[in-house]
Specification:
Layout: E1 6-9, H1 15-25, H2 32-40, E2 45-51, E3 54-63, E4 67-75, H3 84-95, E5 103-109, H4 113-121, E6 125-130, E7 141-146
Parallel strand pairs: 4-5
Antiparallel strand pairs: 1-2, 2-3, 3-4, 5-7, 6-7
């Protein structure tokens, strides 16, 4: 399993590293202003996984009327497959546990078997397809959903 990491809310000071991870992770990376906009929204959840000062990954989530929308997840290529994304998503579920009216949704490339497996292992199910969703190659996206878990 992975070495312990510290999770904390992302800050504007993290934008350089966020951009770096984004470029390493996606063929059509978000712009710096897109990340800055999400970090500025008080209703969203923007978390980073750190070891010391080194950011290993991040999670950007927007709050909608009926769902928490997982908009962006990225992990340093060196740290992939070591539980960083799972840890970030599990923390999201903990933070939002007092919000039983909102489920969780996300889109994922149909070719991203590793991510799909992770999401399924966390309780997400495929509920639809967005045809030609990704602008770089017109690849379809699976729409995945996870119901909110009732408070214990």
């Amino acid at each position: 399993m992975m070495t312990a990491v510290e999770l904390r809310r992302l800050r504007t000071a993290d934008l350089d590293r966020i951009e770096e991870l984004e470029r390493e992770s996606y063929p059509t990376p978000w712009s710096r202003s897109m990340f800055a906009g999400e970090l500025a929204k008080p209703s969203g959840i923007c978390l980073g996984a750190f070891q010391g000062e080194d950011m290993l990954g991040y999670l950007i989530v927007a709050r909608y009327v009926d769902a928490w929308h997982v908009m962006n997840v990225a992990v340093d290529p060196v740290w992939r497959g070591r539980g960083v994304a799972r840890t970030l998503l599990e923390r999201l579920f903990e933070i939002t546990a007092e919000d039983p009216d909102r489920g969780y949704t996300l889109e994922v490339r149909v070719s991203n078997a590793v991510a799909i497996h992770l999401y399924e292992s966390l309780g997400f199910v495929t509920t639809g397809v967005r045809r030609g969703y990704y602008t770089d190659n017109r690849e379809d996206a699976l729409i995945m959903w996870k119901d909110a878990e009732p408070p214990v």
